[in-house]
Amino acid sequence: MIEYNFTIVVTTFLFTMTMLPSVYLRYLPFRTVLGDEVRKTLLHGYATIFFCENALILLLIFSNILSYTLETYKHIYFFAGYAPYFALNLILIRPYLAQHAFILGIQQILATTIATCAAILTLLFVSVDHFFDYVYLFFLIYLALYLLTFPLVLPFFRQIFLRFSSISTERFWLYIAPLPFLVFFHEIFHSVGDKVLVLDFFISRLILAGAAIFIALVAWRGLEHILQQAATTERSLTLLRRMNSFRAYTRSLQDKQARLAIVRHDLRHNAKMLADLIARGEDEAAIKLIQSLNYQIDATSVEHFAENSMVDSALAVYVQQAREKNIPIEVKIDTPSTFAAEVDFALLLSNLLENAIQAEEREAEAARDIRVRARTAGDSIFLSIENRCSSPLKLSPKGLPTRRIDAGHGYGTRSVEIFAEKYGAEFFTEHTDGYFRFFMQLPLGQDFKNQS
């Protein structure tokens, strides 16, 4: 009797252990968006559920409310075992209902496929009639196989949301979330009896695994397509904004040229006036005339910030915008006169400056400040942009302000990520001392990815 009770305890413990890898896979996609407190709460919650499920199952079996059979464990696994963990995720990891449902479906298909393989391996050692007598062996093989699949499946579960976090995909998930369940529920219907059906349904389980792989690939490719479309749209809008800004800058240059033409036209007349004033000894009037001429000439001058014409034009546009909005801006730029990434670098710089200006407009006027630095060292350009930011920021796993929390800050996550991926650049950010700082290292003189 003691040996029988001990077998029940060990079997139940191993059974609840088999659910933990699945719990981890359902948690992993959301890990990067969770704060430390939420992670800690989830960990404590998972541990509590694990021990409570152990205790409850043993209590129900020893009280003869549940029978100690394979069918009992199947019912618990398919209909109850995962539910508390899933409910805890829904409560603490929000608002991702459709994403939770999709991950649950894919994970359950994966677990069922692994269980099929584990059952077949178990049947190599025991007969079908004595399968439940050695069900602990099945659980051990199942756990070992599940852990062996981690190197293959972890990249998918880790990246499925993180890789596409910079775009809005809520509607996509609403459409695709039911697909894994439509496939999986068919298998549940045929799997909840007290018999070992793995050999009878082996082919259908292979088809189930193939369907899961197909659905996962469809989801990934669909998100890749959305990402590409979003990147194209954002680039088009960025170029349109740049064109509008450069149009305004061109108009200001034309205005300065018109003023310069007037100054040149009046130069001989002003020179005569100056000579007459000096001849008559009217020094004070002559000084005022010289000051007036200096002011007119200064008003026609064009300020230059960089040797590279593309970078210089981008800086000129947004420095002028910042000054018009009473935002102090300090620029020190040292870039090569020409380099392979100059066009995209100028566009990125324009995007960062435009959004820094937008962020500064929300700061108190006395506290506004933007600093732009770039220098060439070795085979790299090092860029830093910092601006005042008194409000708290939530950064994405890649170090950029998240759109959901920080829509007003404006650092274009997609443009930065696309540029970094295309040119092999490295970037990071920090938010300290009331400043938000963006740093980037751009390598020069290497082959770049061909991206539109």
From TrEMBL:
Q: Which UniProt keywords apply?
A: Membrane, Transmembrane, Transmembrane helix
Provide the coiled-coil residue spans.
none
Keyword Nucleus found: no
TM spans (from-to) = 6-25, 46-70, 76-97, 109-128, 134-160, 172-189, 201-220
InterPro entries this protein is in?
A: HATPase_C_sf, NatK-like_C
- Pfam families, per the entry: HATPase_c_5 (PF14501)
Task: Give all residue intervals belonging to the Sensor histidine kinase NatK-like C-terminal domain.
Answer: 343-442
This chain belongs to which protein, by name? Answer: Sensor histidine kinase NatK-like C-terminal domain-containing protein
Q: Which organism is it from?
A: Centipeda periodontii DSM 2778
Which lineage is the organism of this entry classified under, starting from the top rank?
Answer: Bacteria, Bacillati, Bacillota, Negativicutes, Selenomonadales
